[in-house]
Amino acid sequence: MISSLKQFADRTAKPIKVLDKRIEVNQYCTIDFSSSNVVLSKFDVADPVSCQKFIEGVLHENNALVAYGGYLEKRNLYNDKPDFHQAKGRRNIHLGVDFWAKAGTKVLAPVKGVVHSFKNNAAMGDYGPTIILKHEIDGFIFHTLYGHLSLAAIENIHIDQEFEAGNVVATLGTPDVNVNYAPHLHFQIIIDMEGKKGDYPGVCAEDDLEYYAKNCPDPNILLQMIFS
């Protein structure tokens, strides 16, 4: 089960990357999009231009090329998006890790897998072009979701297409394609897809957190050493 991912990562003995392998680990830095970050009050993070200014400030301060973070982070980023409000409460807890980087940055398969499904989730606040891969490690089956991609990423792809670890799966999209977000990759591990194809919730309400935290474990379990 989940331990299979940890054991696999331990065997590789090196960081497992999901962005351009030429970007070194020391060129990554953490970023805080949580609702408790008072610095965000100076920015309209729902606006991609203002959000990009916040990201660039963090990158400059850390001499980095990629800013990452966000697993189980409670955010205000979705307050203006009507689809994130539901009877159980606002969906504002992030279930994946975001990698904020330039549009066009290559997205890599972390481990060998095949295409499970893909779709352009073009609704306000959604993923935009999305690819989901299916993997098996030591008999344990799981999925990885890649959101906010370029349109080209889903134009020449097919179900069951194989990707080896490190193969380029896609590139990051621009705000006009990725549904009005600053360029980034939403990376999420999903165990049970629940019959969904090309899409899966990337944000949940607090009442549903116990289930989703189990079905969408911390990507650090697989990627390790990038998140320290």
Overview of the structural elements:
This protein has 228 residues and is α+β, with helices and mostly antiparallel strands. Helix content is 16%, strand content 25%. It has an eight-stranded mixed sheet with strand order 1-2-4-11-8-7-6-9. A two-stranded antiparallel ribbon has the order 3-12. A hairpin with a 6-residue loop joins strand 6 (113-121) and strand 7 (128-137).
End-to-end separation:
23 Å
Strands ordered across the widest β-sheet: 1-2-4-11-8-7-6-9
Question: Helix/strand/pairing class, anyone?
Answer: alpha+beta
Query: Helical amount among residues, as a percent range?
Result: 10-25%
Q: How large a portion of the residues is in β-strands, by DSSP E? A: 25-35%
* Weakly predicted, low-confidence segments: none
Largest sheet: 8 strands, mixed
Tally of DSSP β-strands: 12
Helix-strand topology string: HEHEEEEEEEEEEEHH
Characteristic key phrases:
alpha+beta; 8-stranded mixed beta sheet; 16% helix; two-stranded antiparallel sheet; 228 residues; 25% strand
Blueprint (SSEs and pairs):
Blueprint: H1 2-12, E1 28-30, H2 48-62, E2 66-69, E3 93-94, E4 97-100, E5 106-108, E6 113-121, E7 128-137, E8 140-147, E9 162-163, E10 168-171, E11 184-190, E12 203-204, H3 209-215, H4 220-223
Parallel strand pairs: 1-2
Antiparallel strand pairs: 2-4, 3-12, 4-11, 5-10, 6-7, 6-9, 7-8, 8-11
